[in-house]
């Protein structure tokens, strides 16, 4: 890859000198892990794991196959090809894998079809709900015991599912619970899709609370965010196949709108460009969290490979290719990345790449007393947002639904308690 000259930058010109930081009493908290030790590579840098460890493959599933491959597979089972579409209708339109409910299929072939093409992929280990029942976190066990989570959230006029794309994560961000254990493995296409199908089934059964009497929104998941476990672009092919299944019209897929699907990344630049060239106009989000390499190298270890300017150039390329406005995610962490000058620097870097192509979503972190990973003060949050807006960058503080059940993004992790519950069920 050609080196971007701007990538050599370590401390931004607009950052106040260290002396000034001390003189004004503005502290700079450095990102370090708390209660766990970050794995390091031979050069002492945080270890990045891109390749998925080899583990037994999940069973082949209808959602792993294209419509043509489904027909071939059904024929291999000794059945006529048109049964593939019937089975896909049950799965993608009625959200069922239960042979007993497939009454339009002859009884003697239902088990054969379900056994061959709809094997169980996710076993529910635990479900946590908010009091109103409008946010639900699921903990799933995969066929090999790996644990992943998804979070279902009802908002006025839409239902959003936050999905996982990997068991664990290899990006080693020091603030993130998911990254602590490293990457267990990539999830398969069908394991990603099944999270949505299971959520849709629950919604159809009336299991998601918070619906108002005058709410006529369609009762199924309308929006997907890839902000659960894993770095989606590190599992590129399977994630993209899952996206294709999401947007394919029913019954070939779930018939969702690409615009309602948000693919987020910490900045895997070649994969961002590839995504831009796919021709599927999903919403793209870059988890930036710092506008300067000095801090971002420590906060987001993949920044040692692709620098802030390279990630922003790739984000701009995404906008140019798709016409879709890009989201910049920015978790506001007290005295670490929430300085006013960082808001100015971020605005400067975004504006130098043009106008109207981006918006910023600062995300207030959970208040965690005694931790360096705690929320910015309300004043710092407001000042950060004000400076960006004043510089012409549309900026809105994001709703952090899910906090109540520890399901906010970047906090999705299977605890040892969850592991115990899974072991008891296995
Ligand atoms: S923040 Fe995202 S990319 Fe970083 S370790 Fe956590 S899940 Fe992985």
Key descriptive features of the protein:
TIM Barrel; DNA polymerase, domain 1; 9-stranded mixed beta sheet; 12 helices; binds iron/sulfur cluster
Q: Can you put this structure into words, describing what you see?
A:
This protein is globular. The protein contains twelve helices and eleven strands. Helices cover 31% and strands 15% of the residues. Helix 10 (340-351) packs parallel to helix 11 (378-390). Residues 1-14, 17-23 and 407-426 have low confidence and may be disordered. The protein has helices at residues 18-23, 67-76, 83-92, 107-117, 189-204, 236-247, 269-276, 293-299, 308-322, 340-351, 378-390, 416-425; strands at 123-129, 135-141, 147-155, 158-162, 166-168, 183-186, 223-225, 261-265, 283-287, 326-332, 358-364. The termini are far apart. It has three domains: 35-58 and 122-172 and 180-254 and 407-426, Aldolase class I (TIM Barrel); 62-117, DNA polymerase, domain 1 (Orthogonal Bundle), CATH 1.10.150; 266-395, TIM Barrel. With 426 residues, the chain is α/β, with parallel strands linked by helices.
């Amino acid at each position: 890859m050609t080196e971007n000259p701007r990538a050599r930058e370590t401390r931004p010109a607009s950052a106040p000198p260290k002396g000034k930081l001390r003189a004004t009493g503005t502290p700079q908290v450095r990102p370090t892990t708390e209660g766990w030790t970050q794995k390091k590579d031979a050069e002492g840098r945080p270890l990045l794991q891109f390749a998925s460890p080899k583990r037994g493959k999940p069973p082949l599933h209808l959602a792993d196959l294209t419509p043509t491959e489904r027909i071939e597979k059904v024929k291999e089972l000794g059945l006529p090809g048109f049964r593939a579409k019937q089975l896909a209708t049950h799965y993608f339109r009625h959200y069922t894998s239960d042979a007993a409910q497939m009454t339009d299929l002859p009884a003697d072939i239902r088990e054969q079809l379900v056994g061959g093409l709809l094997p169980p992929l996710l076993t529910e280990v635990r479900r946590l709900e908010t009091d109103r029942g409008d946010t639900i976190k699921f903990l799933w066990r995969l066929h090999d015991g790996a644990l992943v989570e998804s979070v279902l959230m009802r908002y006025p006029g839409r239902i959003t599912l936050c999905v996982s794309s990997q068991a664990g994560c290899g990006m080693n961000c020091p603030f993130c619970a998911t990254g602590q254990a490293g990457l267990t493995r990539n999830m398969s296409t069908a394991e990603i899709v099944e999270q949505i199908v299971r959520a849709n089934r629950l919604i159809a059964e009336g299991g998601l609370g918070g619906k108002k009497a005058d709410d006529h929104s369609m009762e199924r998941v309308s929006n997907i965010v890839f902000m659960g476990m894993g770095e989606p672009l590190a599992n590129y092919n399977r994630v993209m196949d899952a996206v294709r299944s999401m947007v394919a019209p029913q019954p070939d897929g779930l018939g969702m709108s690409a615009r309602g699907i948000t693919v987020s990344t910490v900045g895997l630049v070649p994969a961002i460009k590839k995504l831009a060239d796919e021709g599927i106009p999903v919403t793209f989000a870059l988890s930036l969290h710092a506008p300067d390499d000095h801090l971002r190298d420590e906060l987001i270890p993949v920044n040692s490979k692709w620098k802030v300017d390279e990630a922003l150039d790739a984000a701009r390329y995404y906008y140019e290719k798709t016409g879709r406005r890009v989201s910049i995610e920015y978790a506001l962490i007290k005295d670490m990345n929430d300085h006013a000058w960082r808001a100015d620097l971020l605005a400067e870097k975004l504006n130098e790449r043009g106008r109207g192509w981006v918006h910023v979503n600062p995300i207030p972190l959970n208040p965690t007393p005694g931790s360096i990973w705690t929320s910015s003060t309300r004043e710092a949050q407001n000042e950060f947002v004000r400076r960006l807006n004043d510089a012409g960058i549309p900026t809105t503080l994001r709703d952090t639904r899910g906090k109540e059940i520890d399901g906010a993004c970047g906090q999705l992790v299977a605890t040892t308690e969850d592991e115990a519950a899974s072991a008891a069920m296995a």
